[in-house]
Amino acid sequence: MTTAHFTPEAARPQAGGAPRSRRASRRPRSAGVGPWLAVPLLAVLLAGCGIRSTQVPTDFGPAPSRVPCALSGPDISTQTSHGVPVQVFLLCSAQLVTVDRSVRIPDGTAEAARRVLVAQALLDELAETPSTPEQQAGYTTDVRGGMTVGGPRGQDPEDTLRLSTTPEDLTPAALGQIVCTFSDSAAARDDGTVVLGGPAPAPLRSYECTPEVRASPGTEAPASTAVGDS
Q1: What is the structure's pLDDT at 230?
Q2: Are the CB atoms for 182 and 119 separated by under 8 Å?
Q3: Measured between alpha carbons, how far is 90 from 97 in angstroms, rounded to an integer?
């Protein structure tokens, strides 16, 4: 006699091959693996855009910054390590800005000769190409080399400085550099003005370094007045 075995409906295999009770207890796999699939997917997208993916943070450092008209201390001390400390006006950010220099003047030089020697030394400094740190800070000069300066001729006032180039033939910036540099030195008159002229018998003018010239040397020519008896 054959004994019939009863199989509960819930335990019968279904079309999917697994009991219904076991299938109902499974959780969807997509929720658990989604974050892991996102990483390779992002790499594929980056590669498709021509960007190489990296697992190491990249630090290129801060953006480079340039501070115009700012000089380092070592360069300044080098410029003034020998001779008499002076200041000359260079161009920077479309303005006249002082930088430190030094000049050599023989001891015991008479006042009249000293004025000319100081003026020539300052003129030479203005014509020099700015140092590398000065160029990096934005300094330039409009004064060209080869210019000379001499003292009075004939009936010129004793504080006259005659340039080998007529002041009117200089650019406004170059004339502004010369006038402002001379006015702050022993080459100037007691009131800070500078008497300049070209080779004799060119007329003389008294020049003044004004705030307008220092602020806009390229467009503002130094204020001047005619000097008599020249």
Answers
A1: 52
A2: yes
A3: 5
Beta partners for 40?
A: none
pLDDT tens digit sequence for 164-203: 999 999 999 999 999 999 998 999 999 999 999 999 999 9
Query: Do the beta carbons of residue 163 and residue 197 sit within 8 Å?
Result: yes
Amino acid letter, residue 83: G
> What is the C-alpha separation between 207 and 61, in angstroms, rounded?
50
SS (H, E, C) the chain: CCCCCCCCHHHCCCCCCCCHHHHHHCCCCHHHHHHHHHHHHHHHHHHHCCCCCCCCCCCCCCCCCCCCCCCCHHHHHHHCCCCEEEEEEEEECCEEEEEEEEECCCCCCCHHHHHHHHHHHHHHHHHCCCCHHHHHCCCECCCCCCCCEECCCCCCCCCEEEECCCHHHCCHHHHHHHHHHHHCCCCCCCCCCEEEECCCCCCEEEEECCHHHHHCCCCCCCEEEEECCC
Q: Which of 222, 179, 212, 151 is nearest to 88 (CA)?
A: 179
Give the dihedral sign, CA 109/110/111/116: negative
Angle at 193 between CA 188 and CA 197, to 5 degrees: 80
